[in-house]
Amino acid sequence: MSTDPYIDLNYNNRCKFREVLNKLITKGDKIVFTANRESKKDLLTDINIDNENIRFYKRNELRIQLKNVIDNKNYFIVVGNRDADLQLAASNKLFYIVPTWCDSLDILPQKYGIKVKDIEHLYKLINIIENQQSWYYRADLDEKTTILSLTSANTWGFHSEEELKMIESFRAYLKEGDSTHQMTLLYHFLASISNNKEFRDIKDWGIMPSSGTELNSDMNLMKEKARELMNGRKKEPIFLRHTATWKSHKSWENKLNRKPCDRHFDTIILNPYYKGKLKNRTVCIFDDYLTYGTTFETARNILISENAKKIFFVSLGRFGKQYTMQNYEITGDVSKPGYAYKLLGTKEIYGKIDKSAISEIEKLHNIINS
Question: What is the pLDDT of residues 92-118, one digit of tens each?
Answer without folding.
Answer: 889 999 999 999 999 999 999 999 999
